[in-house]
Fold this sequence. Notes:
The chain has 71 residues and is mainly α. It has one domain. It contains four helices and no strands. The chain is elongated. The protein starts with a helix and ends with a helix.
Amino acid sequence: MDELKEKLAALGLPTEQIDSVLETVLGYLKDQLPEGMSGIVDSLIAGEAPDLGELGGVDDIMNKAKGLFGG
Length: 71
């Protein structure tokens, strides 16, 4: 998260607004995800490995994503 904050600051976003901007963007992303998946975003932002539950492991998800793009 710190890296993202640094990148936003480098773009000229005032330091005092960065947390508010990130909160807004993350809230929007969570609202767009299917029900019950916002916890994955929370885990990633906290630097933790998300509990993927029924989705399987990271390898399973990557293979499913590759399949969507013909890979």
